[in-house]
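Why does residue order matter? Because the sequence determines the fold. Keep that principle in mind as you read this record.
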Amino acid sequence: MRALNIEPGWTVWAKLLVGPQEPNYTGVLSTAGGLVFHGEPGGDFAAVDARSGKTLWTFRGNDSWRASPMTYMVNGRQYIVVAIS
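Structure:
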């Protein structure tokens, strides 16, 4: 996974996703708050700092990701959801 500075076309940061690619059908979600969310081939779900590419936290899903993450807000609190099977 790579973050690009689109104007000059430079790679700002890159994160190697290790594991089998076939069962990993996840997409990437970026937020206005500077976070990037994605599923990893090994079954983890990660939050990444959009500026640095540093992984902030991971959640063990123990299965393959089947959809792109989505976000919604209820009563001022933001939630992230994604399908796993």
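The chain is about 0% helix and 45% strand.
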